[in-house]
Design brief:
Chain lengths: 220, 282
Amino acid sequence: MQDFISHLTSWAPALATGVEYTLLLTLTGMTLALIVAIPLAALRSMKGLPVLRGIASFYVEIIRGTPLLLQLFYIYFVLPQMGIRLSPLVAGSIALGINYSAYLSEVFRGGIAAVEKSQWEAAQTLGLSGRFTWTHIILPQALRISIPSTGNYVVSMFKDTALCSTITVTELLFTGQLIGQQSFQYLQIYTVVFVIYLIITYPASRGVAWIERRTRIEAR
Amino acid sequence: MKEINVDRPSKTEPHLVTIENAHKRFGANVVLQGVDLHVDRGEVLAIIGPSGSGKTTLLRTINGLELLDTGSVTVSGLIIPAMSELVSQRTRDAIVRQIRSTVGMVFQQYNLFPHMTVLRNIIEAPVFSRGVDKETAVKTAIQLLDRMGMADKASAHAHQLSGGQRQRVAIARSLALNPELMLFDEVTSALDPELVGEVLQVMRELAAEGMTMVVVTHEMQFAREVADRVIFMDGGVIVEEGKPEDVFAHPKHKRTQKFLHRVLHPLAEESENSEQNDQGVE
């Protein structure tokens, strides 16, 4: 036990950096995902604009039909051959962002569909423009409806950041791996990493569940 | 088969709203089959009839929420081209937009914006579609709310209000745009019975101020008291039309009599039905 505690103290700085990178990847990945997903969902929900809608649907199908790990490899190993060289952290963020944008766009599309058609009619009747109606009437309600599902995807992305260990981002899992290779204390270090993931995901999941309950009550 | 000239001069238009030979179907379901209707300035017109009679659809054609298959709707001299007319989407949209700027509408389900306060619900359109400065819009909104007896609810959200209060906000929201014509689509049908009165009271006051109103309603008492003219629709046509005292007291058509009897004496329905069935056999 004494031993374990002294190990843990010596691992702590590296693990803290690992957690930092994991959180950073989640933040940048999620930000990118949201920026892409919202217009994507709006585009796919609009009547008219069939070409753009087709392109958007194609994008979503490609992303959802291939593994995230492959997308990550593509961005990190294949793009450099085309002259686009990205740091591991940037490549990881982009891969996570693009991948999750496809799933989130489906969430938001559902949210948009859940806003009643009568809201459109009310806005039209009041002479509000299509653009204004989208940005001020439909999307705010749609996004609110989408908050619980989005929360689940945040937790999910947090775990998927571990895939970035394969392209040498020293996030939490890769940090654990490195420590394991140096110390041969696999049981201890992986258990510690296991617990750290849980310490963050468990309260986060509970939080999402709480938000889910609250938004359901408010919707009445 | 009548030819409609889109550029018909508007100055001679005697009525605020004129609907001519309106036809509309949804798929196989024929909703309007040849309706002619006009509404004069300052007039309160009540449209009654059983559900599925086409009265809501007719109302919705007046501000272009539904477009006719054939026929014409003219509001303040502007003609909304029917689907059969070869008119670009853009032109049609422009006409409808212009008409909507003078026509307010209140819906059965209120259709307030749930994520906004009562005040913002009201000022949003004046500020963002009319360019009224915010201060003036707020002032007008507060006055309207005051008139509705709801000045204390300006910062509430829709879900905190009763149905009657929501509907009064919806009316205020429409009035904030100074419409020439107000359309009411069964605005009390979703309300608990004890809340109907407060909404009808607001409408009664509007009528007294001379607002032109087209009211689709199940409130026969209201139609009788407030309307200048009543039309009874059934099966996509206007069956009977006249002054409320005539239509309600001496309905000429069998279908009107039957409908009025049913809504005015709901408890007598059963015996009446069997009686009519007996007669039908003859």
